[in-house]
Amino acid sequence: MKSADYRNAPMEKMSWNVFIGVVLGQIVSSYTLGIVGVALDRVPSSMTLSSTWLGLLGAGSLIGLFGSLLVGRLADRYGRRKFFMADMLALTLLSVLQLFTTNLAALLVIRIALGMAIAVEYTVGTALLMEWVPAKRYFRYQTYLLAYWAIGYFAAYLVGTFTTGFGDRTWQVILASSAIVSALAGLQRLVVRQPESPRWLASKGRIIEAINLVHRYVGEDYTVHPASQVEVKKGAWRMLFSKKYRRRTLVGGLFYACQTFPFFGISIFLPILMENMNVTNPLVTQLLYYALMIAGVLVGIVLSNRLPRRYFLIGTFLASAAFLLVLSIWHQAPLALTLILFSLFSLTISAALVMDYAYPNELFDASIRTSGVGMCIAISRIGAVAGTFMLPIISNAWGSQAIFIICGTVLLIGGIICYQWAPETSLRFAKHNRSTINEPSGSRVTSSRYSDSTID
């Protein structure tokens, strides 16, 4: 009797261990990204911090995420395990270094290095999860990651807001607090000793090793099917812009960029934005924003598992754009209505985030998956860095209305991009979806072709 593919097996102990390890990595990543905004808000007045430096330091880790290009390529060549195991040590050490410098240039270098380490979690971690959990559950589990990501981001805000007692060094202590969560996550990985991905081993022709791993951790009745035993014969980056993958690479990066531009720009410097909106009780409003972020992710998990991926992407882009553009046009709206519209934006953009990990992973085969996801993340960082760097400058020059106009326009562009090019990657919905997209070769294929060829 032919053995079943291991991804058709139920969740085993190792699958749960991988999921927990990746979840902890997402909490560390979001905490490290989110802590910088509240820390910089606590910089003592004796330090001169211009809006340019504020933007650069806020965007530093996001700049470092461009390293996902290199990380993804190396992980496709040398495997997932090495990077996944070493990453938390790097994050812990870099976080501690923030305690020992007040030099802005040195701090910027550290923040960029932290972003490069976070790139491992975004590329390698999500690929490992997809390649270890059962095929029927992986999309759901990928969306779950964003709930934990939001929790980490909210935790950073709480720690940064309520940490006191360190005098002029309070802001550095807040920044370095990410070392604690990094060390805890690293301890879990040391205890579990994450094995390599069977899917990656098979894609490199190391079939016996892959099957042995499956037999050890999943069961003797399972194996790795030949569909994944394909090695890339030319450079992965070149493959990403070949006729087969070009559109997937671009849509995966551009939708992500259009989401991250407003999300990071607004959330990292939320205290500044609240001040410009003349909110009288910014602490309560900021707590509400982060609570709605978590609620939005939970709503997104439910909806994304019930709706076609394509419709979910288009709908969340257009809805979040509408809320911001109304805020930008209605200058004299009552404060209560302004907060309601801003809350609806927070809920919608947070719901949209659940696609950031799952969708790019569905667009690429196992042999180039981390390279593909790495490229999408690198493209997306253009939006994240631009939003984070520009917001304090725009805020000082033109106020919150300009921010709403720019962010709303970017979201509208994202909706148009998804309407034109985003393929349906859900097998459940693709077979009923008669919409087509053009391959660069000129042939027309149904979106189900994309689904069947990319989920492995």
From TrEMBL:
InterPro entries: MFS_dom (IPR020846), MFS_sugar_transport-like (IPR005828), MFS_trans_sf (IPR036259), Sugar_transporter_CS (IPR005829). It is a multi-pass membrane protein. It comes from the Bacteria. Residues 18-426 form the Major facilitator superfamily (MFS) profile domain. Keywords: Membrane, Transmembrane, Transmembrane helix, Transport. This is Transporter, major facilitator family protein. One of its GO terms (molecular function) is transmembrane transporter activity. Pfam families: Sugar_tr. Gene3D superfamilies: MFS general substrate transporter like domains. It is found in: Cell membrane. Residues 436-456 are annotated as: Disordered. GO terms for cellular component: plasma membrane. Its main location: membrane. The lineage of its organism: Bacteria, Bacillati, Bacillota, Bacilli, Lactobacillales. The chain crosses the membrane at residues 16-40, 52-71, 83-100, 106-129, 141-159, 171-192, 249-274, 286-304, 311-330, 336-359, 371-395, 401-422. The keyword Cell division does not apply.
